[in-house]
């Protein structure tokens, strides 16, 4: 199985766990009128659901371990040198945050009049940087983040892990 599939499978397993926990609520309790007998047959018992939950949770732990190991062992090349996937993912997140900050700075005016600071006194807020320069920096940093994200995506579809997903996929 490829790492990209494992990431999708983790999401699927989380959804299955949520559904089973909802089912626990449905089968664990019943509302009956006074003196009405308990039904003798249920489609699934609480114990059946517990067994299935434990099996999925065990697979989830195994899958998590395999994904973490792959994220540490798989290395991608970046402009800043080779990085393990786990670090490249964080680096891309940081670059996107930096690009957002640069973009916000680029959208601010070079000079901005401030009002309401006293009796007839005009206050002007001056940017101590060039907004156009920060617009260009935002574009450059966003491109770097996109290149790393693309390399991560490629690695996710190339890296294989040993996990039998036939029960789920």
Sum this structure up briefly.
This protein has helices at residues 3-28, 46-73, 85-106, 131-158, and strands spanning 75-78, 81-84, 111-114, 123-126.
Offer a few descriptive terms.
169 residues; 62% helix; two-stranded antiparallel ribbon; 4 helices; 9% strand; mainly alpha; 4 strands
SSE diagram, text form:
Elements: H1 3-28, H2 46-73, E1 75-78, E2 81-84, H3 85-106, E3 111-114, E4 123-126, H4 131-158
Antiparallel strand pairs: 1-2, 3-4
Descriptive account of the structure:
There is one protein chain. The chain is mainly α and 169 residues long. It is built from four helices and four strands, in the order ααββαββα. The protein has helices at 3-28, 46-73, 85-106, 131-158, and strands spanning 75-78, 81-84, 111-114, 123-126. The strands form two sheets. A two-stranded antiparallel ribbon has the order 1-2. A two-stranded antiparallel ribbon has the order 3-4. Helix 1 (3-28) packs antiparallel against helix 2 and helix 3 (85-106) packs antiparallel against helix 4. The longest helix is centred in the middle third of the chain and has 28 residues, at 46-73.
């Amino acid at each position: 199985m490829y790492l990209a599939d494992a990431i999708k499978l983790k999401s699927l397993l989380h959804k299955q766990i949520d559904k089973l926990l909802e089912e626990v609520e449905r089968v664990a309790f019943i509302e009956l009128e006074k003196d009405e007998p308990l039904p003798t047959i249920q489609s699934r018992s609480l114990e059946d659901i517990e067994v299935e939950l434990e099996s999925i949770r065990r697979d989830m732990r195994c899958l998590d371990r395999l994904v973490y190991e792959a994220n540490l062992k798989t290395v991608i090349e970046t402009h800043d040198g080779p990085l393990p996937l786990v670090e490249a993912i964080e680096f891309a997140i940081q670059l996107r945050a930096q690009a957002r900050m640069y973009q916000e700075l680029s959208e601010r005016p070079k000079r901005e009049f401030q009002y309401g600071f006293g009796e007839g006194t005009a206050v002007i807020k001056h940017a101590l940087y060039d907004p156009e320069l920060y617009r260009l920096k935002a574009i450059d940093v966003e491109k770097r983040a996109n290149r790393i994200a693309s390399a991560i995506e490629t690695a996710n579809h190339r890296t294989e892990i040993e996990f039998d997903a036939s029960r789920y996929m």
